[in-house]
Amino acid sequence: MKALRNPVAIVTLLALQACSISTQPSSQPSPTAPAASLDKPASITPQTFIMRGEIVLGHEVRTITPCGSQQQYWLELPNDRFQQAMSLVQRPYEPMYGEVIGHLETGLTDGFVADYAARFVVDSINLITAENPKRCQQDTKPTRAFGTEPFWSMSFEGNQLAFQKMGEEKQLLELSSSRIESDRRRYQFDRGSLELNQRSCSDGMSDSLYGWSATLEIDDGQYQGCATLSNQDGTQDWTGYYQASSTKSSDFSISLQLKPDHTATTSYSYNNGESDSVERGYWQQLNPEQIQVVMTHHQQQPLLSERLFSRQGEQLTATKEKVGNVIYPIADGGVTLFKSASEQAQTNKQESPNQIPSSAEFNPKVDKALRNYFTSTETDPTGTRYRWLSYDLNGDGNKELITQLDWCGSGGCTLLIFENHQNSWRFNSRITLVSTPLNLGVNRSEGWQDMVFFVSGGGAVPNQHIVKFDGQQYPLNPSTAPIASYDEISQIQLFSDGLTPHQQGITL
């Protein structure tokens, strides 16, 4: 097996339980890892972390979309694990749910991976399953072992192990000791022991691949099965919105947003009326006190810059920046950012299940769908800007693609809807006079969700209009649709961020 890239990972990944477990104390103090530095590339070793999300595998696409996100990363799997995962589905590109442990690296300049801002390089698999690809809706889980013939399971509940056989009462067992290694874990209790070993495992009854095998000895019986470790990302305490409280230069202010999907956005706001300058990329933990923030795009143009931030309380500080292969000192002794509780609360509010924000992140699958549409309509898309999101409109469990273009008039802009057909997007509907945010309707027509558009401008009387699917597509002009009553409007809001392609969009 591949060794973990950072010893700290053993603490956060291999020791994650429902809570911490006591082991024999060490007589020696734990050594403090030296701080990473841009001047010493060998010191920059990302800590592995677990990423949960939707996995799609095929010849041209190998991606993971983190739970609750629309960001896609190229998924770099060892070939044997790729083949094992492909055997779980009937055909390529079928979505699966996955939990993989690894780290992020920048994309490559050629091949299919060149379209992606970053690669998630897999060190090990916790779980990949085709049985229920919608597991992102489930809560995170502690370490768990299970098996068949007979059906049994064992999970952690505090400092106890909960053992249960099908049809019998749950038994709580006091944990007396544990030994945790990178590829092996052993737990001892009064009536026996549980041992987990890192190797591919299948229970033989589901289309699932597990990363650990399990052997349970209890009383006079022995049970064989598979296991999964806790699927909680132990680095999430970095997430939030950080900003400069004051700067020596009054010309601009800086903010940094670190999201749970490991995307990062740096914004520069200018006081002279210029539009914001925005850089996008990713972040990951190097050690408990440092993170690596890599920017891969500036205003949608390719960029490669890197900063290492050190943490003191709620404060992040970086003193140098690496652009390409050149390291520069940051002016005025560096940049110091402070975590904003109010801004983070607002971010969490926007990411509630009923609030679906749009994205200005480049996605090769979205780009392909749009270019296919423009080719079919013999339209030159050069210079067109757009924002996009994905949402299941027809209730089949697969998300449609909805894009807002910067083709706008006094009444609104143009919306394109692409149906998810066999895991690829094909054009379905074009709707004009669209203003965002927009709400979905409570009801469905011909199996598709009704949509509610606020129409104004162009001489129209301002009002909410409900647009219904006619069995083939949505109608072009919402101003001719019936006026929506209050009871017909749901709480689900698409393009909830209110951003337009003019403000911040991807350029074709």
Automatic annotation (TrEMBL):
Signal peptide interval:
1-20
Keyword set includes Signal? yes
Q: Which keywords fit this entry according to its UniProt record?
A: Lipoprotein, Signal
UniProt protein name? Predicted membrane protein
Q: Which organism is it from?
A: Vibrio orientalis CIP 102891 = ATCC 33934
